[in-house]
Write a structure and sequence with these properties.
This protein has one domain: Rossmann fold, CATH 3.40.50.150. The chain is about 45% helix and about 20% strand. Strands 3-2-1-4-5-7-6 form a 7-stranded mixed sheet, with helices on both faces.
Length: about 230
Amino acid sequence: MELEEVQHRIRSVNGWLSPMEVRTLYRLARGCTGRGVIVEIGSWQGKSTLCLAGGSQAVNGPKVYAIDPHVGSPEHQMEGKIWTFDAFQKNIADAGLSDRVVPIVKMSGDAVRDMREPIELLFIDGAHEYEAVKADFENYEPWLMEGGVIAFHDTVGWPGPERLVAESIFRSDRFAGATFANSITYARKVARNTASERLANRMRLAVKNLYAAVYVSLLRLKKRISGQSAP
């Protein structure tokens, strides 16, 4: 499936991805060789799943294991009982990608016990509390093969993911090429990065921190203006 078709199909799917993030997920999935599987933690109604599955299908790549209990994260549950699996299944089927996606309706901490294959692309977008993000990272990162890619959503403006990627990706000696696209941070797993790769990671973290500071400031300004203009 080409990127343009993915972009068209996700327009009506509930979710939170910028156009740049859509392109990034599609490109990362399209770059998979099939040496391992794609694992997504946190699928909601399938917007990011479609990006990953569409990119993989374009190169006859690996299946996407989409892990989500489909009852929402704590921040979603404050609005009442949630069940997103029916919408998820419909969105995947409507896109013709049911044969590419393996839904796993479990908490990520339970689903990891069923892991049997190495992971080539790991996308973490589950609960955003620091301890939850850390648990997902520690549970699934050992399954990520060398040369594989790890990606996180909402690493700008969300303290949990933001802290985790700073500690465990940008400042780690196990990842190279760490960078970000809007709120997605991603990097390639290596046996041990070089001194120049560590320096590049830290320089990119400094740029990301500056971007995050500007983003948060603009968001606060927008909210303040909206509040002032409200009747």
